[in-house]
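Weekly structure sync, notes
Attendees: PL (lead), two postdocs, one rotation student
Agenda item 3: pending single-chain targets
PL asked that the sequence for the first pending target be pasted directly into the notes so everyone works from the same version. It is reproduced below exactly as submitted, 754 residues in total.
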Amino acid sequence: MPMMRLSVLAYFLLSILVATFWACSDDDSSRDPSGPDDPDIIVPDTTSTDTTKKDTTRTDTTQTDTVKTDTLSEPSPVFIQNENEYTGFYKEDGYAAFRKLAYTSKTEMGASYLVKFVISNFDTDSPEVHFMNTKAYPIHYDFAQMVLHDERSVFVFESETYFTTEKNTVAGTLTYYASVDSMIALTFFPTDLITPEQVAVVYKMLESRMLFLSPGASKNCLFYMPAGTNAEEAAAGYAAEFKAANIPVYTHAQLFGDIPFQIMNTGTAYGTLRKLTAAELDTAIVSSHDILILETLPAEIPLVAATISKDAQTPLSHVNLAAKARKTPNIAFNGNELPDSLLALCGKLVKLEVKSNSYTVGEASLDEAQEFWNKNVRDPITLTYDLSDTGFIDFADLDFNSAKSVGVKAANLAELHKLLPDNSPDGFAVPFYHYSHFMDYAQVTGELCERSFADCGTEGRSSEICTQVKSACDNALQQESEGSESADEPGTTSLRSYITSLVNREDFAADTRLREAMLDNIRYMFKHIPVETSFGEALDAKVRGLYGEAGVRLRSSTNSEDLSDFNGAGLYKSVKATTREKDLPSDEIRKVWASVWSFKVFEERSLWNIDHFSVQMAVAVHESYPDEVANGVIITQNIADYSVAGIYANIQVGETSVTNPEGGELPEIISIIPSPPPQRGVQSVLLQHSSLCPDSLILGSGEIYALYRTVKLIQDHFAALYKKSSDAIALDIEFKLMGEDRKMVFKQVRPYIN
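Predicted structure, written out during the meeting:
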């Protein structure tokens, strides 16, 4: 470690004595820190009666500064407080004043409040601490230039602030995580070369100027959180000194592990509180008027008003992605026991309100709920599409702008293959036209009505429900025969007309269980009406010519998913196929088309008030990847900590799903952040080990660096296509490692909804 200057060491020792004095004279570790502007928290009145305020004016600013003096004999610090900066916080200022300066960010741990600071003249006997109005000045350099009148260029400022251990200026961030028990994290950029000795000095400087904290307490205190592998290793080597100086240190992983529950998505919901296991949810009929307590995370989550899980979630779990897309509340209790007060409300109509760091739940009246439901009906949406492409279109002939005829997923896959020809799948698309054409020529018959009735009963529905569906099927055929003298065949109707007849029925809209059964009946028709011979033979021949007997994936690509404000993750069905008779692409494609009319998808679209008949389904076809060593999902922003540049990754061993593990397996969670110059490469911040690989990272350091570089390439490329800067858009990217050589393959790019 480089030797610190004597004045800094002297300040360190002095600040320890000052902090000890304040700790002895101002122990308030039991008070709630949320601040008076948080309506969910009752804060004791800690306003001091022994201080007064007076105004002074600094010579370097036109703003009026507020300072305070102590009327008692004991000396008290005097702080400048104006609209640009504070030089300190008084006891009565509390977290409310902190949040007044803070930039608010949403993280996996709920809302966080970021206040940046600059310490000038750090290597002198008179260092100056400036808590920045981070809402007004989110960049350290902008604040230094505009408020402190620092005349250095941005290059010189950053070089002398971040990329050296000989510091005249220090810049960092204070983060209040509202969901973590009354503590503020001191962090620095992962690229900052600040030493542990310097961190300790900065810590004491800041602590002595934040008088609403309780030095030495277990909560309502400041702690140091190293940002990145290098900083964590340096802090571990200096652990004894930090302990002796009474400076608590927590890593990201420790911080995440201490959270009793996660606020995954905020919002308000009314519904009947129901507690279900994943197995029960497979057959339960639920709706947007139900709030679910989930014992375990399900493979799929139907449309519900809100979700509360006992298991931990990640931001990329299907449950949370669905909640974000639907704008519905979502809480996870991290494996902890659910509160008795919550469980006591099961079976009752309740109001659930989830805020950034708390939730409330209580019984509600039907009138209150109905008023809420009526007020939140969305404006109707009719989706656009192009049916002019009638062939099978190779990825080579598609690009980002082809979504109008093949959907965003297929278009982005084609664009991705152009960018990464050796590390992404090649294939072709079956355009919207073929789905729409099938709806017109496929004929529903009386025989299919009979066969579907038998199928209805085998799936556990009541005989009463199945009889109602059979009656609706017969009535649709009867109406078609009566309404047209030139029907193609007596007792038949086109699939499109049949679906229209069922969807327009009053009992379809009024009865959730009947609606689910009728939609299942529609899917049965899709799967049991053959495609046109010419289409089927051409599709099978195309697959056989490109891939031989290798397996392929038929992936849904609609005009109602992967959109800028709605990604539709996990809604539609993708299937495997081969050129063998038992699973030909010409047969399996009907399962993908049928998924347009699944119950959960229909309910989802109804929530968004989307015209169901404007939805079109294309299919992306490419070779499947059977030899999967690892898989993962990337978000091209560091959503674990927005104050630090980088990307966020959930990674798992083999083919075990990251977003939807059937056995509750936990993925590895890391942030990948740049290393400080002049180093090249990246650092990883471990947030959670994989439960299948608890002792090491799944990817090697070289693979992590390659992943980061490729993701940044994808980010820059697609940001330009979406007509946004790379910093203004986040993408959701899926990848796999394949085979013994661990080849990295990227298989999906879409906008991330945060």
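Discussion points:
- DSSP finds 23 helices and 29 strands in the chain.
- The two ends are 41 Å apart (CA to CA).
Action: rotation student to compare against the earlier draft before next sync.
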